[in-house]
Amino acid sequence: MKRVRRMPSKNRSSRRSSGISWRLFGTLTLFVVLVLVVIWVFQIVLLNKFYETSKLEEFTDTDDFIFGLINNEKGMKEAVYTRSGETDTCIRLYKVVDGVATEIADSEVNMGCMLHSIPADALSSLYTRAAKNGGVYSKKIANPSDKNSSINALYVSIEISEKGEEYILMMDSELVPLDATVKTLQKQFGWIMSLLIMGALIIALAISRVICIPLEKMSRSARKLAKGDYNEEFIGGGYREAEELAEALNYASEELAKTDNLQKELVANISHDLRTPLTMIKGYSEVMRDIPGENNPENVQVIIDETERLTELVNDVLDLSKIRSGTRKPEPETFDLTETVRAVLTRYEKLTERDNYVITFSADESVYVNADRTMILQVIYNLVNNALNYTGDDKKVSIDQSVWDNRVRISVIDTGNGIDEADIPYIWDRYYKVDKVHKRAKIGTGLGLSIVKGILESHGATYGVESKVGEGSNFWFELETFRAIDEYETETEENEK
Ligand code: ADP
Question: Is the pTM above the cut of 0.85?
Answer without folding.
Answer: no
